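Re: that chain you flagged

S.,

Sorry for the slow reply, it's been a week of failed gels. I finally had a moment to sit down with the sequence you sent. For the record, here it is as I used it:
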Amino acid sequence: MLDGITFGGFNVTDIKELFGRTEIPVMAFTRKMPNFTKIYEALRNLDQREKRIKIIKNGGEISEFKFDEHKIFYQKVGIEKEEVEEIIKEFTINSLIPEPVRVAHLISSGIARGRSTNRA
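Prediction finished late last night. Pasting the structure tokens below so you have them in one place:
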């Protein structure tokens, strides 16, 4: 489970390559539908712009899942849509994102900043 396919700014995870190397299903979650126009515009000043765009596009379709009064967006590789949505329902307890992603965010924020940003 990933908190989106980008991390640390615009470092990008190729979720298809990650699955290919590990043979472990990959799910990347986000609270909002990414604005690709803004993302591609922001990338124009970075090294390896075309490579990053290719990786983003290689991530595949972004699906929306609504549950209770909430919604979450996700990309997946190596796992069926129904399984991802069951995982979302099962593991979304204290937030709008699954607990493993929320807890990882809290830990990484604590390490990086000495505190959480209260976004998880």
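What I noticed first: The longest strand covers residues 70-77.

Talk soon,
D.
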